[in-house]
Amino acid sequence: MVNKILEIHNLHISFTTFGGEVQAVRGVNLDLYEGETLAVVGESGCGKSVTASSIMGLIPTPPGHIKEGSIRFKGEDMTKLSDRKMRGIRGVDISMIFQDPMTALNPTLTVGDQLTEGLRQHRKVTKKEADAQAVDMLNLVGIPNPDERMKQYPYQFSGGMRQRIVIAMALICEPELLIADEPTTALDVTIQAQILQLFDKIQKETGVSIILITHDLGVVAKVADRIAVMYAGKVVETGTRREIFYEPQHPYTKGLLHSVPRLDQKGEKLIPIDGTPPDLFSPPGGCPFTARCPAAMEVCSRVYPYSTVRSETHEVDCWLQDERAKKHAATIQS
Amino acid sequence: MVTYIVKRFVYMIVTVFIIATLTFFLMNLIPGSPFNEERTTNAVVQQNLEEHYHLHEPLAVQYVLYLKSIITLDFGPSIKQPTETVNALLGRGFPISAELGIWTVLIALISGVALGVFAALKHNHVIDYMAMTIAVLGISIPNFVLATMLIQQLAVQLEWLPAATWSSPAHMVLPVLALATGPMAIIARLTRSSMLETLTQDYIKTARAKGLSPYKIIVKHALKNALMPVVTIMGTLLAGILTGTFVIEKIFAIPGMGKYFVEGINQRDYPVIMGTTVFYSAFLVFMLFLVDIAYGFLDPRIKLHKEGGSS
Amino acid sequence: MSALKEKHPDNSRSSIPDEWFQPKEKNIDEAESVVRPSLSYWEDAWRRLRKNKLAMTGFVFLIFLAVMAVIGPWISPYTVSEASLADQNQPPSMDHWFGTDELGRDVFTRTWYGARISLFVGLMAALIDFFIGVVYGGLSGYKGGRTDNVMMRIVEILYGLPYLLVVILLLVVMGPSLLTIIIALTVTGWVGMARIVRGQVLQLKHHEFVMASQSFGAKTKRIIQKNLLPNTMGPIIVQMTLTVPTAIFAEAFLSFLGLGIQSPYASWGVMANDALGVILSGDWWRLFFPAFFISATMFAFNVLGDGLQDALDPRLRR
């Protein structure tokens, strides 16, 4: 049995703004097993990036704060750790990669400097050792002539190359968990594929667990072992890649799948999901997807659906799973 | 980088040339030549003027000879005293003004950046509001008003510090304070907003995600980037400080260049006005040139680019 | 929000009535009807500005100043230049609220007269800068290409000229007066505005709505007027607000150097300059009133400008 490396339980995160409180994350439960890749999927603003930042303890406070819940990393609740302790975990045990490689690197420092500074902060190494390790890392992520490239500045690299550097930077202290927030969104499609392959390769070589935050199901299909679908600050469905792609249960998951072109299902029409996600200033009671849901029922707008466990790995929060809903649907069909 | 410097250098020369030309023709627009006999009472002075400006030649020839004299750094005679030349005035006044200017720039820069960074780090905190209110006050109180108020309070009422002249470090305190407050406030505000902007950048998030200490994040990652806009406005600030020396030297009776310039204005000593204007402008434009080069070194794009920056 | 509770115990399912499981009529609009009331750009900006206490204080002070500039000299029994040897250097009293100067002129009257001069110079400079800047910058940004290149080279060189030095030179040549001050200030002052306008126009130029009106064959002039200008107004208003204190400062500075308004007429710079001579005698009111009003006016314009900047910045809307 594989161990859980990360357990998020009933996480609530809010931001206080001029307009009031924004409930960005509203009771998220997520588990991550050692060596697996978990994809967190959802539209922008669904809380997936906030959840990821909170694992790193990088929620800007104020205005944001964790209201409730726990984030356990190897058994230890990180929401309770001191800043100093968190700094010892960041970049060492858990690393994070941000969306836009064009802005993630400091334009005024050399790549080598940025690669080695984390290492020199956390480990007792000489400059020479750090440089050697950085060169190894650049080799691993596939940057040619790493010795020369170390002395260069970010603007001298292409977007894809910069993302490789960012990944190298995140991996240099050999973390156990890598969080990648939309790592391929800002890249060309061809580069995207290369970066995804790189993730695969890295995982095989280092055994790192990966949380992949994305809105792009195409990305997920290639690399994820398990998938969590988020909507309006909640996880509405989790399952293995197989379960999510072939037996999606939540209408929102189905909607997402229908709005992505697929090569294996010719002739099927792309169906966008109508409407926009709810305003998290005042989230609706009940299921937040009700207003956009093609199969909405009275109950949906009143009570948030109970979780239905379909298999050891597949769980979904939807009233359509209820026996009574199935009965009504059957009577209408016939 | 080389191309960048050359380009900036050409700009510098063009600007000085324009100012020199502008000065020359504007002065010749004054009804009846500025060097007219009626304005001078002294035959020797008239002789000096004649010699320097070649007044009997046609205007075009005068202009060419004038440009030549500027290239050789000869700014001509004064109208008022027969033995005085603009060069002599500059020779006496410039070191004093430069001293005033250097202290002002240093103090404005150091305290301005410190205040700005501090306010940014305490964003939306009482300290931030206080620092910024002080900064707006600093911008709002004209330097000559501040100077007179400082004299009235600290020199006349409390007798803490001397009110005039430039003979000891104690004499420097009030003039430097009066002159540095405005630029300091501008730098503080700019540093603050630029620092706040920088702190939201992705590379700061990346640095935090690496587990770097707050000190390292601020000094190594944020400050250098946040100071780039400050460098770019240094030119404007230097110009402000330079013109500020006119009034400050007048108020504190400091025998610098500015005092001679203001006297020249009040006595309508046109050759002195012309000479000092061109000198001031050339000096300032040279400073801007230095600032541009400094910026080039801060920005790796310009520093490493072989064909020069395209900014 | 009780419905948000996670993982209900399974037996409570039965407490939900059966008929709630009927499929509902699909109604997309429902979700969008709950959004907060949307305000127009200007309403929103005004709402945000009003919340900024410092900016509003500045605004109120400026209204007060404008009123006093108009009626101040008029409600006073004295005139600006009326000297009275009997009333030399009087401290503030019932007769002379702000005291008198060494010629026995009433400082109260002169202060409000000075307000007229300062506000007039400031507003005129801002307005003229605005017109030249919008035409020049708008044209440069809109035309683009070579025209833009040449026009901006000119601006760049003008920008490199030391502002006050050029103004001093112009005044030496033209002779000091209210008109020449305004001319001298605007000859170099419009450059900043032109830069801002050009930047705004460039940013907005490629927006779809411009493309749209272009495809309908709208003329250049119409595109600038209808589509571009309203969107560029925010930064321009801020720039104008901040031009005023610069111009007020420049006028006082020049007057202080003897290149501005000439005695017997009053401006704050002239009054501060006159007060310098008596600074050792302890006649504090001579310096205090012009110094206070010039600083307070600049402060008011600066905080109002800052407030407008925050209020009009679309990035900060929420």
UniProtKB/TrEMBL annotation, chain B:
Broad class of where this protein is predominantly found: membrane
GO terms for biological process, alphabetical: transmembrane transport
UniProt subcellular location: Cell membrane
GO cellular component: plasma membrane
Similarity remark: Belongs to the binding-protein-dependent transport system permease family.
Gene3D superfamilies: MetI-like
UniProt membrane topology term: Multi-pass membrane protein
Keywords, ordered alphabetically: Cell membrane, Membrane, Transmembrane, Transmembrane helix, Transport
ABC transmembrane type-1 domain mapped to chain residues: 94-295
Entry's transmembrane regions: 9-30, 100-121, 133-152, 172-191, 226-248, 278-298
Organism, as annotated: Halobacillus litoralis
Official protein name in the record: ABC transporter permease subunit
InterPro entries found in the cross-reference section: BPD_transp_1_N (IPR045621), MetI-like (IPR000515), MetI-like_sf (IPR035906)
Keyword Membrane applies: yes
CDD domains: TM_PBP2
Residues making up the signal peptide according to the UniProt record: none
Pfam families: BPD_transp_1, BPD_transp_1_N
